[in-house]
Amino acid sequence: MKIGVIGLGISGKKLVSAIERMGHIPVGFEQKSEEEFLSVEENRKFLLEHRNLEVIFNYSEDKIKKSNIDFVVLSSGVKHDTFFEKSIPFKSELDFVYENIPKSKKIILITGTKGKGTTLLLLSEILAKSGISHFAGGNIQKIGDKILTAADAIFSDAEFLIIEASSFQLRSSYTIRPHTLAITSLDIDHLDFHPSFFDYLNSKLKISKSSKFVVSPFRVVEILPRRYEVVENIGYDIYRKIFEIYSDDGSVIISDCTKSEIVISHILQNDSHYWNIQPAIKSNTLCAVGIASTILPVKDIKCDTIDIPKRKYCLEPLGEIDIGHKKIKVINDSKSTNYVSLANALLSFDSKVILIAGGRTKGFNFSKIRDIIDRKVEKAFLIGEAKEKLIKDFQNAEICKNLEDAFQKALKFAETSKSEVILFSPGGASQPDFQNAEERGRKFEELFKSKVANYQNHKGE
């Protein structure tokens, strides 16, 4: 079988490897020119490792039709609209995975505007402590030192396959039948990709019709859900509520709705301080416990001693800069790519912060969290494509040339400000200034290290 792969980013490369391993012939289709594609070292390395791979650069629909492929698989972030209009057979990455695993395996899809990656890591630890073998990966998810995508799940021996799924992937999916669909949160996002909010919303909700269980916030549009419900799909669009998951005084409470009684209450023993200072961690933990209740008996769920995952570029403390009369804490939250993430970051601090924010806002602004901004931001330094658009949402803000300029001005402002925290939480996508949130996070980390060295040198003079 000859199978096309649209887009040779991280997930596309993984799909090519999976197709080869399955004994089929992959054909890569890449929008970039050959020269542009080969200018990246990892792309050159990939083609050296796959010397027999046919790649069609600057592809068009006509080139795809002439390539005599059986169908194309869409890598993460590729729209299916044109393929549908041009009658080109296509499968989403998720459908391709589902169709190539034994039906005895159970897929757990985790999606949502915010928190799906952290929820996946929390669920993975809960299942590990409960002795449940599982695969965890998905939407370019880094587990330990490995990057695992949905395609890697095809070759897993585990019964449960936990996959983080974006709205991009779900939008093009039609055949996947998850054991559990979990929605961590829902709010406006990715309106640069989806033609409407309903299109974004439907990309997640439509999968519920083919899922055995659904875990979702008790309130649909809520920045940081405090209560989740677990429902069972019993057919004919009937979803029977079986559990509610919520917290009370540092505990995780599972309420059995079929018996109107509390089944189990866990008091977190480890990292409870982190639970209290990061509101999103509490929300993600509740969602993860809800998912676990669809996999094993609630009495066997072990979440009282889970270690809270500290993810790179997610409210990551870089350290302190001694500016003379005080020390400034610097936080790297580069993975903040929408206003929901920004709101979560701001709510994690008791006092006002100096904020560096901005980027590509994907069809939204910060007006919806204006009250949080007013309470939590002493001054903002704005960068990126939407900086002129965003300034109206701040009482005190300044437009900067780039990230380096913003950090320099934030440090200068810190010398006379009341705040002792500089928070880099963009609240927008990294493009066009950076390839992705990771590159943006690395750049900010480099700037921090450089400024620490500069201040230390001046201090020694």
Give a quick set of tags describing it.
461 residues, alpha/beta, Rossmann fold, UDP-N-acetylmuramoyl-L-alanine:D-glutamate ligase, Protein-Tyrosine Phosphatase, Chain A, nine-stranded mixed sheet
Folded structure, characterized:
This protein has helices at 10-21, 34-38, 41-49, 61-66, 81-85, 93-99, 116-129, 167-171, 197-205, 272-277, 279-292, 339-347, 370-376, 387-390, 403-414, 437-460; strands at residues 2-6, 25-30, 54-57, 71-74, 90-92, 106-111, 134-138, 141-143, 146-148, 160-164, 180-183, 213-217, 227-235, 238-248, 251-256, 261-267, 316-322, 327-332, 353-358, 377-383, 397-399, 421-424. It has 461 residues and is α/β, with parallel strands linked by helices. The chain has three domains: 2-88, 3-Layer(aba) Sandwich (Rossmann fold); 96-300, UDP-N-acetylmuramoyl-L-alanine:D-glutamate ligase, CATH 3.40.1190.10; 316-460, Mur ligase, C-terminal domain (Protein-Tyrosine Phosphatase, Chain A, Alpha-Beta Complex), CATH 3.90.190.20. The strands form four sheets. It has a nine-stranded mixed beta sheet with strand order 7-10-6-11-12-13-14-15-16, covered by helices on one side. A six-stranded mixed beta sheet has the order 17-18-22-19-20-21. A hairpin with a 4-residue loop joins strand 17 (316-322) and strand 18 (327-332). Helix 7 (116-129) crosses helix 11 and helix 15 (403-414) packs across helix 16 (437-460). The longest helix has 24 residues, at 437-460.
